[in-house]
Amino acid sequence: MARPKKNGNDLTAANLLYSLRCRGGSAPLHTLGFSSGVIQSLLDKNLVKVQNTGCGFLLKLTEEK
């Protein structure tokens, strides 16, 4: 029996979340090698936020409650 097909975008988003957790919860946006669509999907789900540091932008995990 064939396995159900998983959405590649969801798998990539999960990889980005894992990468951020390994980096302590945030990373400079320019160092991430993920597409803007993947980042936007996480922003739409309120899982991450973008912070302007004055010297660049950080992608940060939102606080889990």
Low-confidence blocks of residues: none
Note the main sheet: 3 strands, antiparallel
> CA-to-CA gap between the ends?
39 Å
User: Taking strands numbered 1, 2, ... along the chain, how are they ordered across the largest sheet?
Assistant: 1-3-2
β-strand number:
3
Sketch the topology as an H/E string, one letter per element: HEHEE
Structural class by sheet pairing and helices: alpha+beta
Q: Tally the helices: what do you get?
A: 2
Strand content: 15-25%
Mean pLDDT: 86
Shape: elongated
Which bin fits the share of residues in helices?
A: 25-40%
- Computed over alpha carbons, the radius of gyration is 13 Å
Would you write up a description of this structure?
With 65 residues, the protein is an alpha+beta fold. It contains 2 helices and 3 strands, in the order H-E-H-E-E. The chain has a 3-stranded antiparallel β-sheet with strand order 1-3-2. Helix 1 (8-22) crosses helix 2. The protein is elongated, with a radius of gyration of 13 Å. The chain starts with 7 loop residues before the first helix and ends with a strand. The mean pLDDT is 86.
